[in-house]
Design a protein that fits this description.
This protein has about 300 residues and is mostly helical. It folds into two domains: about 120 residues, no CATH class; about 180 residues, MetI-like (MetI-like fold). It has a two-stranded antiparallel sheet. Helix 4 packs across helix 10 and helix 7 packs antiparallel against helix 10. It starts with a helix and ends with a helix.
Length: about 300
């Protein structure tokens, strides 16, 4: 009886172990498959139609032929610049508010912050992109047009503000977790040395939580880079390099979303769009690498501190 029960227990153990292993391997294979598919599709711009990488990344001339003969121009600089401008502006707007909110949740008013403020912030993460885009189109765009006396309100500024609101909950929640993970003893030691609460926050807590805060900012930036619908509704959709925050332009995601369904399969246009999708994939991998790098630095610092304590 005991032997049968033991075999059953080990069978369940092996089953769940193998199932989890299979799920993990499936995710790895799926990621490699997506990357390989994008490389296969995106490389046609350079291998089949003879365009150079410098032309693709450094030229603002965008007029690919929508046929299999080619001969057009595939400069994606406009879309790369548009993506960098909108995401950079969104980060400049969202990061200070997110860090301030995280500090409020963890150090200024922990009870109210955890019970009420944090759940309200997290609600923003569940709002669909189209809602953000529609509010931006009907409220923000007319406001920018009126306040700044512009001909149109569609602009990088509008897209940056919409993206800032969208990435705000991501940066806030990750930063709050990082600040909360700082040991209470660090705060108590600072207070014991006569530090005020604000001195403790910006000289002890924030530096100690910096790797986690940076990871949250990178995650928010990755979210901003991948957004298409909300940005497309407020950015103006003009194929031109931006000259100011009031310029209308396009991003990588908005151009892919607008043209992919209409482009001819196997044509130069669709190949160029696949190359832009591959570029987005590589940017996402870069963000993931940066997060792991920041986390690795934190782990190394913690190990050194532990070793020093052990040596003493």
């Amino acid at each position: 009886m005991d032997r049968t029960k033991g075999k059953s227990m080990f069978a369940k153990e092996y089953f769940w172990r193998d199932l989890m292993t299979a799920c993990g391997l499936f995710v790895i294979v799926l990621t490699i498959g997506i990357g390989g598919f994008l490389v296969y599709k995106g490389s046609a711009t350079f291998l089949t139609y003879g365009h150079s990488l410098w032309e693709f990344l450094g030229s603002a001339q965008w007029s690919p032929a929508d046929n299999s003969e080619g001969g057009g121009m595939v400069g994606a600089l406009i879309f790369v610049t548009g993506s960098l401008c909108t995401c950079g502006l969104a980060l400049l707007i969202a990061a200070p508010f997110s860090l301030g909110s995280a500090i409020f949740i963890t150090d200024i008013s922990p009870k109210f912050g955890e019970r009420f403020y944090r759940p309200v912030v997290e609600i923003f993460a569940g709002i669909p992109s189209v809602v953000y885009g529609w509010v931006g189109l009907t409220v923000l765009v007319p406001a920018i047009k009126t306040v700044f006396d512009r001909q149109v309100g569609h602009s990088i500024l509008a897209a940056g503000i919409v993206l800032a609101v969208m990435i705000f909950p991501t940066i806030t929640t990750v930063s709050a977790d990082a600040l909360k993970a700082v040991p209470k003893e660090c705060r108590m030691a600072a207070y014991g040395l006569g530090s005020t609460r604000w001195q403790t926050i910006y000289k002890i807590v924030v530096p100690a939580a910096a790797p986690g805060i940076i990871s949250g900012i990178i995650l928010g930036l990755a979210r901003a880079f991948g957004e298409a619908l909300a940005v497309a509704m407020v950015i103006g959709q003009t194929t031109a390099l931006p000259t100011s925050i009031f310029s209308t332009t396009k991003t990588l995601t908005t151009e892919i979303a607008a043209q992919m369904g209409n482009a001819m399969e196997g044509g130069e246009m669709k190949s160029a769009l696949w190359s832009m999708a591959l570029l987005l994939f590589l940017i996402s991998l870069l963000f993931i690498f940066m997060i792991h790098r920041v986390s690795a630095v934190k782990t190394e610092d913690d190990s050194r501190k532990t070793a020093r304590k052990g040596g003493k």
